[in-house]
Amino acid sequence: MKIALFGSKDFDSLEYHLNDSLNFLKHDVTHIDIKDLVPIPYKYSYWASKLLKKYDSYLFEKVATKIIATAPELVICTYRFTHPDCIKLIRKGLPNVAIIHVNPDQMTTLEYQQIFVSDYDAYFTKDLFMVDFMKNKMGLNTFYLPEAFNPRVHKKVTTDRTLLEKEVNIDVVAFGTMYPYRARMVENLINEGIDIKLYGTPDKRFPRKQITDNFTNEFITGDRKAEILSGAKIVFNNFHFAEVQSANVKFFEIGGIGAFQICDYKAVLEEYSIIDVEKFTFKNIHEAADLIKFYLDKPLLRHELAETQRIHFMNNHTYEHRISELLSKI
Predict the structure, then answer these.
(1) Domain boundaries in the chain?
(2) Residue ranges of the Spore protein YkvP/CgeB glycosyl transferase-like domain (predicted)?
(3) What is the CATH T-level fold of the domain 161-316, as seen in this structure?
(4) DSSP state of 318
(5) Which of 74, 76, 239, 327 has the most CB atoms in a 10 Å sphere around its CB?
(6) Which pLDDT score, from 0 to 100, does residue 67 have?
(7) Through-space distance between the first and last CA atoms of the chain, rounded to whole angstroms
(8) pTM of the predicted model, to two decimals?
(9) Residues whose CB is less than 8 angstroms from the CB of residue 88 and which lie 6 or more positions away in sequence, other chains included
(10) What is the CA radius of gyration of the chain?
(11) Which residues 6+ apart lie within 8 Å of 220 measured at CB?
């Protein structure tokens, strides 16, 4: 199928993995990033589009023209800030082509709610709460599509796990942007005597000493991410507070790599996991600390659970599986 994909080209983004997986499945994909179409650094263009209504319209008219010119059989959009007029222009230029939106994030990232006033043929979201709200309250043609992992990027490390743990020498690791909610939770673990190393982006606006003291100042992706997550004894994965009935993408990446994670309890995890979720989830931060302390000195159990989960995720939760589900709905 000939597909136009409109979204970020940044490595390890949803759109990056969709493009990679669609190509792996032999589809003909034209991947368009808004950064491809602006003559100035995108961070300035982004704010100009927020402040100047005419510039916003101009920018997305260029996007629509570019997408129409590719003559696709399907248009997939992921940006939440896409101007509704852009979708109108695409529909006018491609009257018989389905235009869909895939939202990979939790519900606090909906910008000005542009997707709700845009004429998409179908909407895909990972949160069952949002599926219900969008479908039954707003009457939108909405489908459930959980996050996933890319087996060509989120790969199992071939080094012996026991040797790798000795080499990496990390009890507990957490990674990502250190938002205040995440920092508070991590700080509670530190106060419980847990040694935790932090990778990703620190919070420069509201830094906390206990957090900055544990930061490695390294942003991990690709093979390095797999090495650190697999080499750490435990990955602490605390979901955003707006993950109402959903899991973050880290849940699938960690599982797909074959690392051992402890994360927030969500009922929906029972759908994703082949392991009893009570074995690796917590309902309060003290349960998280207790679970971490329980598993730290049980490497064989950790490795067995992680490998069982990895095989299950490989068979059920890759982007190829999600694309198959998506195409079956349209």
Answers:
(1) 2-145, 161-316
(2) 183-327
(3) Rossmann fold (3.40.50)
(4) B
(5) 76
(6) 98
(7) 13
(8) 0.94
(9) 119
(10) 21
(11) 175, 199, 200, 228
